[in-house]
UniProtKB/TrEMBL annotation:
CDD domains: EFG_mtEFG1_IV (cd01434). Pfam families: EFG_III (PF14492), EFG_IV (PF03764). It comes from Clostridium beijerinckii (strain ATCC 51743 / NCIMB 8052). Coiled coil: none annotated. GO terms for molecular function: GTP binding; translation elongation factor activity. This is Elongation factor G, domain IV. SUPFAM superfamilies: EF-G C-terminal domain-like, Ribosomal protein S5 domain 2-like.
Amino acid sequence: MNREEIVMSENKIKEPVIFIVIEPNTKANYINIFKALRSIYEKEPSFKIYTKDKTKYVIIAGVEEETLQIVIEALRKEFNIEFKAGDTQIIYKQTIKNTIKSEGRYIKQSGVESYGHCFIEIEPKDRGKGYEFINKIYDDEVIPKEFIECINSGIQESISLGMCCGYSLTDIKVTLYDGSYHKTYSRQMAFKIAGYIAIREAIKDIELTFLEPILKLVLESKDNKEDIIRLIHNSSGKIEDGASNGEITVYIPLRETIGSASVALKNLFKHALSIDISHYEEIPYEIQKNIANEEDFYRCEYVDLLNYKIEEDETL
């Protein structure tokens, strides 16, 4: 396969939903991987790259498993780079199941003194509603308005990490309702850190659950309709009622379609009229137990391939 033959299908999904961890075995291979990825990305920007622990891991993330496998195959066969590649994994999300109040306080007394302090309430929102920040402080004697957005920024940075695994928190409302400041020592960064701390403190006692992406497929309803229905049901999927115009709409967990998914299911995807992420649903408890300790995506940093500069002193 030539580099010119790498063809990746377009997709309207903006954020990655799957990833593969690559582990280079030498510094030279780490550098070569980034050079090769940049070359591929310039032609087909259909994936994203993250790093973790400097040169220890490189993470390729995207929407379609086939896309990621094409990139890995090109790295090995076209660029002759040796590395270990893990299995395809889902980028899950997390949300909360109860309401809780929390305090974030940051005081730095050495060097340049800083002070930031806030009280927040966190509560769940309906599925798919995302993040909402509500400010209920209107008195500058409590917290001046120039610090409010700093608190919000710290909160959003903290929820992007989630509780574990690097899977972000979603479908939550955070209300800022109290706090305090110091006329001399309060600074914007101190309030950002206070907002960050408030979420980390809340997570210690809050009830969390994992969410998984659900695919929506529109299929042609032909003579094999019963086979399609049986296949979808065996893959934890659902069939939408009221099929019309010779089409069937089905919903299936993304986890059922990657890795060792059946050939029949993967062939079904190839002939789908359309594929998209429909929504996120809570993952069954028995599956959550298996992902609760995964850390591959935790504290990863996004890489702008076109502008990324490799530090020569980075080592494995």
